[in-house]
Each structure stands twice: as structure tokens, then as C-alpha cells.
Amino acid sequence: MIAEPQICQPSPAAVAEHPRLSPRADDALPSISIVAPAYNEQEAIAEFHRRVSEVLRAIGAPYELVLVNDGSTDHTLALMHALQADDAQVMVVDLSRNFGKEIALSAGLDHSSGEVVIVLDADLQDPPELIPELLRGWREGYDVIYGVRSHRDGESWLKKATAHLFYRLIGSVSRVEIPRDTGDFRLMTRRVVRELSRLREEHRFMKGLFAWVGFPSRPLVYRRSPRLAGSTKWSYWKLWNLALEGITSFTIGPLKIASYLGLSVAFLSLLYAAFVIWKTLMYGDPVRGYPSLLVVVLFLGGVQLISVGVLGEYIGRIFNEVKGRPLYLVNRIIPSQLHTKTSASPPEAR
After folding, report:
1. pLDDT confidence band for 187 (50 / 70 / 90)
2. Nearest to 207 by CA among 233, 176, 236, 234
3. Which of 53, 82, 261, 323 has the most CB atoms less than 10 A away?
4. 6 or 136: which leads in pLDDT
């Protein structure tokens, strides 16, 4: 059963006081693109298509399902082709290999055609039944309505705890305000997607990029469901690397910490040297303390290696960015009916 979402509804007075909003008619219906990257989701992809299509048909707006195959090694791609053969609203974007979810999501956004784009996970952890609530926020004039997880069903306490700490950490050091407990589940207008497409950095942390582009936004609080089938592709090692991507992409805080740590150690070393000199002059203390000297040397060596490692993380990212390689390569695209119509229309009509 899908839990009732908690909608953060602005009052008419709040809308009047917010000149950035451009409310739309209550019966307005945009064309909708659903973007869903998938890697080895053969157990869930058919049910995902059924539930999403059911919701979108009830809404009555033109739509497409942009399914991005991120180099799956099971039958995910074959099932996508079968769905597209039976449903002209399905678009299949088959990447040349596995590029990772962040880049696969970017590929889906690049090939979407709708006036609004909604990002969903193919494992159905983000309920498609909340799409009407996202559209309600669009009618209120917002460009981005992002999902905030009140509960994370089906996840271990360790994953919940580390996610909680990560969002608090990056929120405290990032130069961009990244909403807490927020994933990729969101609705974006075409102008937001257009600006996102201009950001071609290789090391991508999409939650940060979503926040960086700005535009009027509001949250939709919901209860995240457990996976429909299969197992998560996010190991703790991959989550750790994603956290590093987020921190190094949106803050130079680690570099500052390394600098402050070096200054602190140097200052403490000077104080200790002054103490040793004073003690020798006052008491004639002979040279002793090989064990303590070894500890100090090892400590300083560790500080230096950590600082070099932090510096190396940033230099490695510079190395990858300056090569200027494309984010991804596409093996094959099977367009949807909406995509074909949009591509055939003149630019001024889009």
C-alpha cells in the first residue's frame, strides 16, 4: 500500500509574495517524460512499465517512458525492446557499456522530449502513483518538485545511518544547499533539464547538480518503498565512492582541512620544540625518547600522506576532466512516439 504523501502546500498569499512563481491553470497538462536508468533490472522492468503507464494513462497527458539500459548483463535490454514493440510510448536508450547510474541518468535527460521530466528508479522504490502530486506542484508554478524521504523501507540501519550522516556532512561543507534525505526522484521543467544538459563534468553527483541549477523548488515528503525485486547494485564501496564524488565536486573543504591540519601540527611542533629547549637549558636533560620520537615521526608521516591523498583526489578529477571525453556513448536508440513528434516539429513550436 502506498503511504499518503505529505504535501508542502503554499498558501495563495505565499504565492502572491513569491514573484518567481508562475502558476499554471488547474487543468493544465504538460507532455511528460519519465526517465528511468536501469542496470540488471529484469525482475522489475515489466512491472515498472505497467504501473507507470497505468498512472500516466489516467492523467491523460502525452507521455513517453525513456528507459536507459546502462550496460545490463541480464535480459533487461531484451525486455525493454519487447516493451517498446508493444508500446509506442516507450523509448529505449542503449548505452555502449556500463557508465554508472549518474551518467545513465544524464543520458536519459539528454534524450527526453517532454515539457516536464520525472526521474524514477526502475526498482519502484519511488512510487509512480505520486506523479499527480508532482504535477500539482508544477501547476503551482514550481520548476522542480523533489522527493524527500520520510522513511526508507527495506534498507539496513547501517545504510540509513550512513546516508543520514552524509547528507548532514555535505550540507555543512557544500557551497550549494543540497536538500537532506533527497534522491533523484523529482519533476523538472524543460528549462531546468536544458540547463542541466550544459553541465558536462565527468565526475557527476546528480543530487548536487540538481541543486546547483536552482530555479523555484519545493519538496514532496513521501515514504520510500522497498525494492520490488532483485538486489541493490549499490555496495558500500560504491556508496563510499559516490560520497567522495559529492564532496569533492561541491566543496574544497577537504583541501582546507588538510591545510589547517598541517598548520596545527606545525604550531604544536614549535611549542614542543620550545619546551624541549627550555627543559634542556633549565635541567640539562640528556637526549632520550626514541619511542616517542618514532611516534611523532609516524604521526607526521601519516598527516602528510593524508594531505597528499586529498590533493591527489582533486588532481585526479582535473586529469579526467581535461581529457574532454564524452560522458557516454550510445549503442542504439529506439525513439518513442512523443520523441518522434517533437523532433519533427519546428524549434519555435517546442
Report:
1. very high
2. 176
3. 53
4. 136
CB 73 within 8 A of CB 40: yes
Give me the long-range contacts of 54-62 (CB less than 8 A, separation at least 24). Answer: 55/128, 55/129, 55/131, 55/132, 56/32, 56/89, 56/131, 59/29, 59/32, 59/131, 59/132, 59/135, 60/29, 61/29, 61/30, 61/31, 61/32, 62/31, 62/32, 62/114, 62/338
Q: What is the pTM of this model?
A: 0.70
Helix axes 236-250, 206-213, angle to 10 degrees: 30
- Indicate the residue type of 49: H
CB contact set of 145 (below 8 Å; sequence gap of 6+): 133, 134, 137, 138, 186, 187, 217, 218, 219, 220
Cβ contact 242:29 at 8 Å: no
Residue type, 192: V
Report the C-alpha gap between 114 and 198 in whole angstroms.
18
Closest CA to 246 of 328, 169, 188, 150: 169
CA dist., res. 100 & res. 98, Å (int):
6
Task: Label residue 246 exposed, middle or buried (CB < 10 Å: 0-12, 13-18, 19+).
Answer: buried
Residue 325: strand, helix, or coil: coil
Name the nearest CA neighbour of 54 among 132, 166, 158.
132
Q: Which amino acid belongs to residue 12?
A: P
15-50 tens-digit pLDDT: 555 667 777 777 888 889 999 898 888 888 888 899
**Greater pLDDT, 253 or 79:** 79
The more confident residue out of 120 and 280 is 120
Angstrom CA distances, 290 to 196, 264, 287, 297, 335, stand at 58, 23, 9, 10, 72
pLDDT tens for 312-349 read: 777 777 777 777 788 889 898 888 888 787 776 554 44
Distance CA 202, CA 224 (A): 29
